[in-house]
């Protein structure tokens, strides 16, 4: 049994944080590829599609067709991305059915340039949901102040949402409120709540990168001893909030689903740390961990796991945060930087993708 199967037995679904035409078509049997690794879902983001579409010639045939239609670079990008997401959704349709919609999901993100525009975000979420036209799709919407109402609206309209770019427990509280509000509105409209699913994506390794940089600047033994601990502690505190928020099913409308925490950015950035630490230390019931392929490979080479490392870990996580504050880490500032940079990085990747696509569309004109 591969380790991802054992992780699933603990309660964590493994999703792949990658998608490309090469992965879909270059793999001899994509269904078997996913099955052998117990990969139960797929997430994407602007950086992933930028790398996929900009590299190689896997999209050349479709680009030629789009060039003949004289489409804009933006429309071309979405047409290519949507086709990939549709194919992946079809491959994972069986998983979606077998898990009653919990897994078998494929995420596609709204334009990151709309992160601070509620109206544009919800309008594009509706359009993507309509264009992908697969029940196991998920629309990724960032957890910015401006996009939180769009999350509620999307859910109220029956759109399954992957809430992304969450970096703090305080923001997660707002995301949970937006989710519950959306479900109540959906119930009032007579929608089948069993069909509406959502995950809340916490970015883990980015927290450690930012905090570790500050700890190294402080440089004391107490500060250096806390390196590599902030991301896991943050996620564990978020999980404790999840347990508190969804423990009483009577607070949710009938047939409603819990919004599961999803651990994102789980590829370890520091080579000094174990490459599987954001998997082993964040395993527990009702969670998702989306990983790059390299991390999945490392995990599946493991012989042993620690079991559930989330349910009773909140006290230890609080001690880590108390230690960080004691040595002078301003956690509010860390979160503000990460939220701002998170959007900026996706906007940059998106613009690079548009520029690259524009060049390819113009190449044969």
From TrEMBL:
Stretches of the chain forming a coiled coil according to its record: 56-83
Gene3D superfamilies the record matches: Aldolase class I
SUPFAM superfamilies in alphabetical order: Aldolase
Catalytic activity: D-sedoheptulose 7-phosphate + D-glyceraldehyde 3-phosphate = D-erythrose 4-phosphate + beta-D-fructose 6-phosphate
Keywords: Coiled coil, Cytoplasm, Pentose shunt, Schiff base, Transferase
GO molecular function: transaldolase activity
Subcellular location(s) per record: Cytoplasm
InterPro entries assigned to the protein according to its UniProt record, in alphabetical order: Aldolase_TIM (IPR013785), TAL/FSA (IPR001585), Transaldolase_2 (IPR004732), Transaldolase_AS (IPR018225)
PROSITE patterns for this protein: TRANSALDOLASE_1
Protein's pathway: Carbohydrate degradation; pentose phosphate pathway; D-glyceraldehyde 3-phosphate and beta-D-fructose 6-phosphate from D-ribose 5-phosphate and D-xylulose 5-phosphate (non-oxidative stage): step 2/3
EC number assigned by the record: 2.2.1.2
Annotated GO CC locations: cytoplasm
Active site positions: 140
RNA-binding is among the record's keywords: no
UniProt GO BP: carbohydrate metabolic process; pentose-phosphate shunt
Superkingdom classification of source: Bacteria
Known function: Transaldolase is important for the balance of metabolites in the pentose-phosphate pathway.
Family matches, as HAMAP family: Transaldolase_2 (MF_00493)
NCBIfam families recorded: PRK03343.1, tal_mycobact
Protein family (similarity comment): Belongs to the transaldolase family. Type 2 subfamily.
Protein name: Transaldolase
Organism: Corynebacterium imitans
